[in-house]
Design brief:
The complex is a heterodimer of chains A (71) and B (397). Chain A has 71 residues and is α+β, with helices and mostly antiparallel strands. Helix content of chain A is 58%, strand content 14%. Among the domains of chain B are: 7-102, Nucleic acid-binding proteins (OB fold (Dihydrolipoamide Acetyltransferase, E2P)), CATH 2.40.50.140; 138-263, Rossmann fold, CATH 3.40.50; 352-395, no CATH class. Chain B has twelve helices and 14 strands. The chains are: A alpha+beta (71), B alpha/beta (397).
Amino acid sequence: MSDNKTFEENLKELENIVVELEKGELGLEESISKFEKGIAVSKECNSKLEDAEKRINILLEGKEEEFKVEE
Amino acid sequence: MNKVYSVSNVNKYIKMMFDKDPLLIDIAIKGEITNFKAHYTGHLYFTLKDNASTIKCVMFKGYASLNKFAPKDGDSVIITGSISSFERDGVYQVYVKTISLDGQGDLYLKYEELKEKLKNEGLFNPEYKKKIPFLPRRVGVITSKTGAVIRDIINVSTRRYNNVNLLIYPAAVQGVNTAETVINGIEVFNNMENKVDVIIIARGGGSFEDLFGFNDENLARTIFKSKIPIVSAVGHETDFTICDFVSDLRAPTPSAAAELVYPSKLELISNINNLKLRLNRAIQVTLDKRKQSLKNITADRLQKTPQSIIQKYTMIVDSNIKTMENIIKNRYNNLMKEYTKNIALLDSYSPLKTLARGYSVVTLTKTNKIIKSKEDVSKDDVINIKLSDGQIEASVI
């Protein structure tokens, strides 16, 4: 749905939806569809936070290798 | 025998000679500090030496307090001041006004010149600063692959955001290769397929000379041209380099760079949860409001309007029933009238009255046919004679 959006854009959208809903000026149908959208976007945000895998690599002669801290 | 002078007179004369020599009144001398002593009064005493000789120096408190660094034994320095003699001891010495590290003067001048030039070209202008992405997918780090800096960056960033994605470009961060390797790193990151969203250039603290590699014009121009935003974390809080000025963001330390680049995941999650809570509350409020207004409508209209509708239709039904009743009554009356009239007519046509006047009806018994002519009967036929009060069976003779 919002695959191409960055985390920040999603968060911003969520904030906008919340503010709009809090104003309470929307019709019922629109409120509910906004609410559903908000829930979907918040899930998107959460999964963006969790999805990424920890990776620390080093570029050596143009190749990526796993980086180990030298003590 | 020549004239004999007192020691004081001689020393006074010598001092006078020093003081009227234009070269000695204002002189700069290069050498290495030895026998350095900082007196408790604030005056500094030391000896300046080179390979072959030494010269005594004194720097009074008023001048010493303006020093940009703390001189010590072994420092190669350039001093400025005047040379005079100290009458009491009969020694000559340098009365030092300024002291600076040898070599730095040149470097500092170069630094200031380059900074001024790039500034005038607009390379430091805020409108060219690229925005640092809020939550980078991948971060490029240009720094030494050994030492505390890379460890600090890894520790701080993973503490704030456990699933970091760092790509380290090992670079020389001291010496003549500094600018070249850092430039390479920036170019490699800019030309990579799996791009990084932001680049951190990091180096720990050091002397002005140690950091001088980051005051390079080509490096500055490469940073300026980079399509990927760059955070500069070179040296400590008090150290500034050209690299800091031209970068999109300056971090006071490498650890701070990690903090600037990676947001705290805990804060983000609590922010999202807070927004979800508000979302739920807002929809609840909307639904409650709708429910309430639905209730109001039910009380106000849905309950009153149908009542009046029912009443209205009841009246229509009632009046229809009345109309139908009237129609039925009318038809009944009309039918009743017609019926009475017909009964009276029927009565007047009835043959019973004719019989009462003495007529009779004769029928042939076997055929039950009315006998209208003498031809209708033969001898011995049984006939039936109907009279007004009864009938007689007879036979024809």
